[in-house]
Amino acid sequence: MTGFTSNLAFAIGINKYKSGIAELKTAKPDAEELADLLRDEYQYQVELITDNTDRKPTLNELENLLTKWLPEKLQSPAENNRLLLYFAGHEMPVESDHGSTGKFRKLSDRLTEFLLLIFV
Questions:
Q1: Alpha-carbon distance 22 to 15, whole Å?
Q2: Distance set, CA 8 to CA 26, 60, 69, 71, 85 (Å)
Q3: How far apart are CA 115 and CA 26, in angstroms?
Q4: Does 35 score more than 70 pLDDT?
Q5: d(Cα 83, Cα 77) in Å, to the nearest integer?
Q6: Which of 5, 29, 62, 99 has the most CB within a 10 Å radius?
């Protein structure tokens, strides 16, 4: 990977949700396949996070990953680091006072908002 001394990736795949949200079938295997590809073909250091990994896809765990694990792995200067974040999971309907709007908000939007808070 020309110009980069550090190639890091987070591959997150969530099949199982709480609160009655329907279980998915492909989010976890998609994240696993991408993690293997990035690790084996492109020499990324990959943190795979799924329902079945030791590190669970919870907001607390992701916060820990991004605020503690990631800063330890990044190398100076910052321009030498490449970071890839992959998320596979559910979306949920956006509700209004009159019911569903027909639009969807990705459950990962909360993660995106969190990432913006950390990296901005």
A1: 9
A2: 23, 20, 11, 11, 9
A3: 24
A4: yes
A5: 14
A6: 62
